[in-house]
């Protein structure tokens, strides 16, 4: 029996008509009733709950299989002709046999019996009494030793039941107070060392200061909401899987809520037992009657992550373009590059900067596996699951900003683009060598659903980033190119001359104490950042990749090519041109690179 059912009170109506009696039944059929007691001689040999669970009609409504009007008609028929509601519903064409079984499974009562007594007349007679009361027993035959262990475990639950009752009372309080404040969402985040409740108020997430608690209390709160308040849910609470549930408005009377839709599950870091629960509050039309006992919740802005935004290697222009991208309200930004090119690190820093600017926004990440801890976000581990399904689930969690770790297939690309199309900001990665090739790459995944006519929209794909990582020369042992004539083949030297004076170009030396013989002192990013616009997308549709890329790079305020940015580092004596050739792009003349 759910704890919430202990306090459900019937509402009486003064009318003797069949419809009124059916209405009375509708209002009270969730009321727990005492079970028929087993014969005295049988009682030492069975363990079971002391009250019956929800009745057939309530379970059918909670599962969305019957409406209240349909149940009213069935109850009227049952009153006149008798019979079981499930059989009547099948004959009336309202339920299938499979749906009836689904209801019976959700309604069933667990009974453990000493296997030696499972076939005796007293036990079978008692099962018949239960069935006539509408209870569907699930019988488990166990040994006498196991039965005694179950009995002792059940008898020791008194203190735990009291604690569960207090937690359930807290859960109700949170929903009552949240509804009174007009919250659209309530979220419980169970972190490594503590748990907190957040509310979305007027579009922004706020932390409920008086509902911050120990992580164990947060875990108990989520469990109480799922097992004690939810009226539609899976039969078993599993903290290690994603689960949906729903609280019918009747379970939260006088709040103005018609329904609460819940999604909960594990979040990163999984090994620490972290988890989340998002409850979407749906209000009825009439919100004039609000709970008199509601109390205002003291809220604050979520904590901003510390630090400043910096990605070593990005130019001042690129930092300005990043500033423009992170402040966009919606759209998708695609970060490209091979494995090891620093995409994940740059994305982490960009999302951290967004959290600093917009701490009230909800960030949700989907990665396989998560690589960086992002305590300001809800980080989900895909664990080999379909990214498309994960995106759909994430959209039910009321996100503002989404990270989809990688687009690998057409369905994932469609899901990510749809998320951006419906008003979310989406980060993702794609394995292509050039930012501009993101569009042809998406088109190759599905030429119908991801055609250029569909995706060449500057308000949909708002940005594209290409990135590589290059070694930075040790300033103590690197040598001028002129002193190492064999460092580069002649054709590379000729290509470099088209970019400028080679006097400042340096290459790797022999190694020294400063660099420990590595010849380099570290690594840095080299990138090209594209902020799309209408003219760019029109060029792509009309003239294709080459023209769109050339015209966009020529626009005032646009970024140079990744090769051009890398060449700047070469002529500053910071990067060996051979490393540019190997890690960024083949060395070619300036005219060829345009």
Distinctive features:
20% strand, 7-stranded mixed β-sheet, elongated, 21 helices, 37% helix, 594 residues, alpha/beta, 9-stranded antiparallel β-sheet
Fraction of residues in β-strands: 15-25%
- Given the C-alpha coordinates, what overall shape results? elongated
Radius of gyration: 32 Å
Kindly report the average pLDDT value: 86
- What is the helical fraction, as a range of percent? 25-40%
**Poorly predicted regions:** 1-32
Number of helices: 21
What about the largest sheet? Answer: 9 strands, antiparallel
How many strand segments?
Answer: 21
- CA-to-CA gap between the ends? 72 Å
Assign the structural class, choosing from mainly alpha, mainly beta, alpha/beta, alpha+beta, or little secondary structure: alpha/beta
Short characterization:
The protein is an alpha/beta fold and 594 residues long. The protein contains 21 helices and 21 strands.
Description:
The protein has 594 residues and is α/β, with parallel strands linked by helices. Helices cover 37% and strands 20% of the residues. α1 packs across α3 (68-81) and α12 runs parallel beside α13. The radius of gyration is 32 Å and the shape is elongated. Residues 1-32 have low confidence and may be disordered.
Helix/strand layout:
Blueprint: H1 18-28, E1 46-48, H2 56-62, H3 68-81, H4 85-91, H5 97-107, E2 109-114, H6 121-132, E3 137-142, H7 144-155, H8 158-180, E4 185-190, E5 194-201, E6 204-208, E7 213-214, H9 215-229, E8 232-233, E9 243-248, E10 257-266, E11 275-283, E12 299-300, H10 316-326, E13 331-336, H11 343-357, E14 363-367, E15 378-381, H12 387-395, E16 401-404, H13 410-421, E17 425-430, H14 438-445, H15 452-455, E18 461-473, E19 479-480, H16 490-497, E20 506-507, E21 520-531, H17 534-543, H18 545-554, H19 562-571, H20 577-583, H21 590-593
Parallel strand pairs: 2-3, 13-17, 13-18, 14-15, 14-16, 16-17
Antiparallel strand pairs: 1-2, 4-5, 4-11, 5-6, 5-7, 6-12, 8-9, 9-10, 10-11, 18-21, 19-20
Helix pairs in contact: 1-3, 8-9, 12-13, 17-18
């Amino acid at each position: 029996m759910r704890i919430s059912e202990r306090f459900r009170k019937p509402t009486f109506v003064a009318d003797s008509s069949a419809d009124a009696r059916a209405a009375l039944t509708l209002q009270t059929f969730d009321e727990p009733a005492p079970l028929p007691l087993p014969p005295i001689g049988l009682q030492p040999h069975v363990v079971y709950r002391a009250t019956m669970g929800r009745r057939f009609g309530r379970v059918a409504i909670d599962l969305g299989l019957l409406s209240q009007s349909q149940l009213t008609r069935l109850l009227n028929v049952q009153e006149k002709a008798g019979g079981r509601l499930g059989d009547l519903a099948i004959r009336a064409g309202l339920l299938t046999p499979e749906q009836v079984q689904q209801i019976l499974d959700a309604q069933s009562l667990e009974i453990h019996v000493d296997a030696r007594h499972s076939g005796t007349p007293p036990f079978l007679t008692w099962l018949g009494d239960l069935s006539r009361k509408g209870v569907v027993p699930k019988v488990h035959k166990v040994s006498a030793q196991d039965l005694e262990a179950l009995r002792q475990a059940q008898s020791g639950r008194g203190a735990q039941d009291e604690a569960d009752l207090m937690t359930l009372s807290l859960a109700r309080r949170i929903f009552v107070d949240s509804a009174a404040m007009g919250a659209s969402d309530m979220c419980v985040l169970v972190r490594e060392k503590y748990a907190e409740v957040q509310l979305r108020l007027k579009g922004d997430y706020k932390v409920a200061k008086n509902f911050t608690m120990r992580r164990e209390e947060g875990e108990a709160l989520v469990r109480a909401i799922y097992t004690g308040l939810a009226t539609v849910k899976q039969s078993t609470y599993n903290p290690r899987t994603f689960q949906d549930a729903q609280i019918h408005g009747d379970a939260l009377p006088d709040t103005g809520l018609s329904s609460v839709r819940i999604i909960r599950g594990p979040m990163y870091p999984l090994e620490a037992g972290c988890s989340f629960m998002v409850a979407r509050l749906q209000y009825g039309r009439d919100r004039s009657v609000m709970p008199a006992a509601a109390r205002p919740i003291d809220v604050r802005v979520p904590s901003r992550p510390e630090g400043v935004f910096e990605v070593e290697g990005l130019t001042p222009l690129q930092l300005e373009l990043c500033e423009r991208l992170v402040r966009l309200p919606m759209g998708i930004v695609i970060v490209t590059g091979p494995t090891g090119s620093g995409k994940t690190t740059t994305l982490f820093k960009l999302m951290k900067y967004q959290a600093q600017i917009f701490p009230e926004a909800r960030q949700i990440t989907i990665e396989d596996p998560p690589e960086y801890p992002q305590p300001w976000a809800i980080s989900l581990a895909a664990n080999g699951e379909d990214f498309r399904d994960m995106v759909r689930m994430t959209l039910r969690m009321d996100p503002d900003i989404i990270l989809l770790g990688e687009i690998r297939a057409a369905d994932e690309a469609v899901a990510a683009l749809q998320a951006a199309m419906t008003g979310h900001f989406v980060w993702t990665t794609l394995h292509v060598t050039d930012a501009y090739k993101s569009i042809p790459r998406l088109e190759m995944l599905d030429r119908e659903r991801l055609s250029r006519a569909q995706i060449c929209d500057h308000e949909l794909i708002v940005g594209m980033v290409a990135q590589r990582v290059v070694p930075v020369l040790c300033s103590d042992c690197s040598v001028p190119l002129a002193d190492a004539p064999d460092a580069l083949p002649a054709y590379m030297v000729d290509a470099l001359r088209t970019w400028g004076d080679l006097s400042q170009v340096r290459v790797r030396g022999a190694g020294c104490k400063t660099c420990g013989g590595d010849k380099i002192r570290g690594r840095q990013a080299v990138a090209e950042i594209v902020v799309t616009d209408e003219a760019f997308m029109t060029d792509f549709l009309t003239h294709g990749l080459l023209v769109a890329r050339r015209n966009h790079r020529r626009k005032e305020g646009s970024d140079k090519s990744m090769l051009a940015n890398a060449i700047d580092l070469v002529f500053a004596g910071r990067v060996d041109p051979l490393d540019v050739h190997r890690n960024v792009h083949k060395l070619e003349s300036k005219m060829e690179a345009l």
